[in-house]
Write a structure and sequence with these properties.
Layout lengths: L1 H10 L13 H14 L23 H24 L1 H14 L4 H9 L7 E4 L5 E4 L1
Antiparallel strand pairs: 1-2
Helix pairs in contact: 1-3, 2-3
Length: 134
């Protein structure tokens, strides 16, 4: 959800690249939220393994769709909060992307390492687990 949140903050709107089609940020986030609910035993469905292919998402129950949507909304709120708290770092990453178009892991690591104010956010997830959000 970081890419969508960054677009929202830096551009004031979200492009289709962050949410249109298979392999978009939103598609990947949706797949993970469904997997939490239906495959990994981390959802209201309990210890159930019932994977859902992207072309079968319409078969989710209304309750499961609601749960997935709530997970995605919470992830987006957290991403916006984290990026807002680290706005100067986001600005540096944005400038680097405008200059180079793509950044690999090494470039991002250098930007983060040279940014003193960056502080990862600790968040307690739906299951009460403390996680480090980068």
């Amino acid at each position: 959800m970081g890419g969508r949140a960054a677009e929202k903050i830096m551009c004031g709107e979200i492009s289709s690249g962050a949410g249109a089609g298979e392999q978009s940020d939103l598609d990947k986030a949706t797949a993970m939220a469904i997997a939490q609910e239906r495959q990994w035993g981390l959802g209201k469905s309990g210890l159930c393994y019932a994977p859902v292919d992207s072309h079968q998402r319409h078969l989710l129950t209304a309750s499961q769709q609601h749960t997935v949507n709530e997970r995605l909304k919470a992830a987006e709120v957290l991403a916006v909060q984290t990026l807002t708290e680290n706005l100067s770092l986001l600005g540096r990453v944005t400038e680097a992307l405008l200059e180079k178009r793509e950044l690999d892991e090494r470039h991002i690591a250098v930007l983060v390492a040279t940014h003193e104010q960056y502080q990862p956010t600790r968040e307690t997830d739906v299951q009460g687990t403390d996680t480090l959000v980068m």
